Amino acid sequence: MTKILAISDVHGQENENLYTYLKNNEDIELVLILGDITDFGPLDFVETFINKVADCGVDVIAIPGNCDPNGICNAINDVSFCLHNNIIAYGDAILFGFGGSNPTPFDTPGEMDDDKIYRQVYDLLANYDYVYNAEVPKVKILVTHAPPFNTEADRVENGEHVGSPGILKSIHEFEPQINLCGHIHEAKSLSKIGKTTDVANPGMLRDNGAVLIDVKDGSNYDIDIISLDE
Question: Does position 95 have pLDDT exceeding 90, yes or no?
Fold first, then answer.
């Protein structure tokens, strides 16, 4: 059994409720940070923040967001593990990571063409699919900053969907059980793509949103949006 807490969109603002929650829930083993740790820097905040989270007795894995500056992956790797464009096994889960976002109107540092997102997320999922052993099942968790297009997780305030078609396409093709994402602050939600993939966006850390995943074994899990101040 593995308990994972996912948070997103820190934007350089700590939330004491996070540390309190982790200290009060000692069975959580891993904190996933889904990007935008900083607000265009400074990179020094990455070490400060991740170390404070880790001091609560958890492992920390992170990806960059579109508002994180150049050097973000190095800054993450200096103190934990950057999952961007990587795959890692953790307990009964397999984590696939891809940070940054599809283009936005704001010309932020971590944006890239959606075709690139699709190709690289496809490759991550395909590489694991090639060696997957059905006799040793794992819960597949796709960890992205950008949400998949046309879901509850990518809906902005005016109702428009602004997520990544490439991530959506990859999910349809490989059907990971879970996609954890952020980026759209107002789109805190837990929804489903088809019958196979739970999509969870915890919203901004300052608003106390988080996703709690309880991986019971390689085939079974529970997932919920929680509030860190409760």
Answer: yes
Whole-number pLDDT of residue 133: 84
What's the N-to-C CA distance of the chain in angstroms?
A: 23
Task: For residue 56, give its domain range.
Answer: 2-227
What local confidence, expressed as pLDDT, does residue 130 receive? 75
Domain count, the chain: 1
Q: Are 39 and 12 in contact (CB under 8 A)?
A: yes
pLDDT band at 229 (very low <50, low <70, confident <90, very high): very high
SS3 per-residue string spanning the chain = CEEEEEECCCCCCCCHHHHHHHHHCCCEEEEEECCCCCCCCCCHHHHHHHHHHHCCCCEEEECCCCCCCCCHHHHHHHHCEECECEEEEECCEEEEEECCECCCCCCCCCECCHHHHHHHHHHHHHHHHHHCCCCCCCEEEEEECCCECCCHHHECCCCCECCEHHHHHHHHHHCCCEEECCCCCCCCEEEEECCCEEEEECCCHHHCEEEEEEECCCCCEEEEEEECCC
pTM: 0.98
Q: What is the mean pLDDT of residues 132-146?
A: 93
Q: How distant, in Å, are the alpha carbons of 18, 42, 84, 161, 227 from that of 49?
A: 11, 12, 18, 31, 19
Q: What is the pLDDT of residue 192?
A: 98
CATH code of the domain covering residue 73? 3.60.21.10
